[in-house]
Amino acid sequence: MTKASALIAAAGAGERLGKGINKAFVEVAGKPILAHTLSVFESCKAVGEIIIITGEPDIEAAGELVGRFGFSKVSGIVAGGVQRQDSVRNGLDAATGDIVAIHDAARPMVTVELIERSIEKAAEMGACVAAVPVIDTIKSARGDDVVSTVDRSELYSVQTPQTFRAELIRRAYERAYADGYYATDDAALVERLGDRVAVVVGSYDNIKVTTPSDLEIAQVKLGGGFMDETRVGIGFDVHAFAENRKLMLGGVEIEYESGLAGHSDADVVLHAIADALLGAAALGDIGRHFPDSDPAYKGISSLNLLSEVNHIIAQAGWCVVNVDATVICERPKISTYVPEMRQMIARALNASPDRISIKGTTTERLGFTGRGEGIACQAVGTLRKA
Ligand code: CTP
Ligand code: MG
User: Which atom of ligand 1 is nearest to the CA of 106?
Assistant: First the structure.
C-alpha cells in the first residue's frame, strides 16, 4: 500500500484570531502554527507526502517556511479557495496517495499517534473522523428561549484529521460540487453518499486555534510557557513587640511572652506578603487599601486582609504563582509553626501550600531584631494573568 497523502488546509483568513494575518503564520511557542502542524505530519511514518493549501498571497511564505524547517515530505503548495471546502478540493487534485488525511493547519496539537490511528482506520473502513464526546450540556434555543435539552450521549465534537480512501473522498467531492452542496467538514460529503464514516477517538487537546484564548492554550501546550508576563512584587514590614498582645505570625497564633503592636492583629508576615502581591500587580500597598485610621480594621485578623488582597488582584486579572517570605527575629523560633502558616496563607490566597514558602532567620543579635525589639519580614510574590 502506498503511504497516505496529508492535506493541510491553511487558506483561511484567521479573522476570529484578530491578528490581521492568516493564522497559520501566527507564531506560537517560537514558531508559526503551520510549522508546528507540519512537524507532526513530517514525523508520521504512515504519511508519504504533504500538500499545503494556502492563500495565493501566502504561497511564497509557505515555501520559505518549508525550506527553513526542512520539511522533506512537502510535495506541493497549492492555492486555496473561498470556502474551506474549495481549498480542500484544490488539495485533492494534487494528492497521489491511496489514503488522504485532511487536517486543519490550525490544529497544531494533533499527535503522530492520532494521525496514524486515523490512517489505519480509513484503510480499514474507508472513512473516519477524529472526534471527542461533547462535555457541556447542549440545549437548542430560539431567540432568547430554550427550546429543549438535547440528549448528549450520542453527540461528538468533530475534529481533524478526517481520513479517507482517496477514491471515496474524490467521489464525495465530485457529487457535492455537482449538486452545489457545501458542508462544514469533509466527512459530511461522504455521509451524503450513504457511506459509513467511523469515529476515532480524538483528543481534547487537539483544539482548533480560533480565538485569542485558544492561542494562549496552544502556547502552554506547545511548551512555550505562559504568554503573559509574570510579575514580581516585594514587600517588607516591621512591628515592635508589645505587652499583653497575642503574637500572630503567618495567620497562626505563636506561644510567646509578648505580641506585636499594631492597629490590626499586627501579623507582620501577612502584611509583607500582602504588600508583595499588591506590588506585583502595581496596585498600591495595604496602607492604601486598609488605612489604619479606619476603625473597621481595628484588631482585624490579617488573614481577612490577605483574602481581600487576593480578591483585589483577582479582579485585576492576576493569580498567585508563588510567595516566599523570610521572618527576621532572634526569638521566637518559628520552624514548628511553618507548616500551619503555609496552610493558612495558601487558603487565603486560593493557592496550593507548595507554592507558599516561609523561612526564618536571625540577624546575629545585631540591630533592632537582634536586640529583640521587634520582628521584621521580607516577602516576594509572583503573579501571572489568570
Ligand atoms: N481554511 C482553508 N480555506 C478556507 C477557509 C479555511 O484552508 N477558505 C482552513 C483554515 O486555514 C484553518 C481550517 O481551514 O486551518 C479551519 O478553518 P477556520 O478555523 O475557520 O480558520 P479561518 O477561516 O482561517 O479562521 P476565521 O474563520 O476566524 O477567519
Ligand atoms: Mg473560517
Answer: 15
Based on the fold, state whether residues 150 and 80 are members of the same structural domain.
yes
Domain shared by 330 and 359, yes or no: yes
| Contact criterion met (CB below 8 Å) for 50 and 42 | yes
Distance from C-alpha of 322 to C-alpha of 355, rounded to nearest angstrom: 5
Least Cα distance to 86 among 131, 56, 130, 118 occurs for 56
Q: What's the 73 CA to ligand 1 centre distance in angstroms?
A: 23
CA dist 108 and 8 (Å) reads 11
Give the global pTM.
Answer: 0.71
User: What does the pLDDT look like over 329-359, one tens digit per residue?
Assistant: 999 999 999 999 999 999 999 899 999 999 9
State the Cα–Cα distance between residues 222 and 36, nearest whole angstrom: 8
Same-domain status, 139 and 264? no
The CA distance from 357 to 339, in Å, is 9
Show the domain range for 325.
227-385
Residues 56, 187 share a domain:
yes
Answer for the pair 105, 161: CB distance below 8 angstroms, yes or no: no
Rg of the chain on CA atoms, in Å: 30
Task: Please give the distance, rounded to the nearest whole angstrom, from the Cα atom of residue 102 to the centre of ligand 2.
Answer: 16
Q: Which atom of ligand 1 is nearest to the CA of 10?
A: 11
CB of 83 shorter than 6 A to ligand 1:
yes
Say which amino acid occupies 33: I
Q: How confident is the model at residue 30 (pLDDT cuts 50, 70, 90)?
A: confident
Number of domains in the chain: 2
Q: Which candidate, 379, 380, 323, 316, places its Cα nearest to that of 351? A: 323
